[in-house]
Design brief:
nine-stranded antiparallel sheet
Length: about 120
Amino acid sequence: MSGETTIRHESGQWHFEGVLRVRGERPALQHNRYEIEPFAPGARSTHWNSISPTLGTLRGRFVLAGDAILSFYANTPARYRGFECLQQRDERRYSVRGAMMEEDKIISTWALELTTEK
């Protein structure tokens, strides 16, 4: 798998855009675009929104937990929901674990190791 991510900080809103290319038996291309409320001073969490062609509008929350960012999300009317943990391993490496559910059925899980470019 490979991909790119861009984060733009603007007054009152952050924009996260990413592309993920999955190779292998079932190749896929996934585009992600989030609008994130900046963290308030001293806050440990914030909200985000995303529009997915497949899932519709997702609403979520980022929570800071030590060296990790936890993300919880659901679409309206909560048919799809999921969670993800992005943990920083060192200056350039992150571990990601997550799962998505359709109602109570697990439809996807993932475990990724991400490395940033210099």
